[in-house]
Amino acid sequence: MFSLPESLNAWHSAAFNQTLKNELCALNPDLLPLQAGLQHSSYAIADNLSVIILNAKESTNNLHIKTGLFYSGVIAGCNCADDPTPVDEITEYCEVMLSINKQTAEAMICLVE
Question: What is the pLDDT of residues 43-56, one digit of tens each?
């Protein structure tokens, strides 16, 4: 769990999408399910994380935001000195569902499969 207080405060404002994107990109990448969302590589790299907001709605206690995450992944080789395989970054994409508690700003995130 992590906290997204700025996003909660920006709810119902024109700044919400950008605020949420900024807060998510500022998080420790280990808090996001990037490794679990890999489709084409074996190791997630969050250096160039990009966020898009797909859907946002409100329930009695929570904000529910479906979000797309673009990031990079690599196919890890054996790293032997004579390994001719270059380490190329591959663009990865996954969708996650964020639930932000409207009272505490505590957020939970899960991978949408």
Answer: 999 889 999 999 99
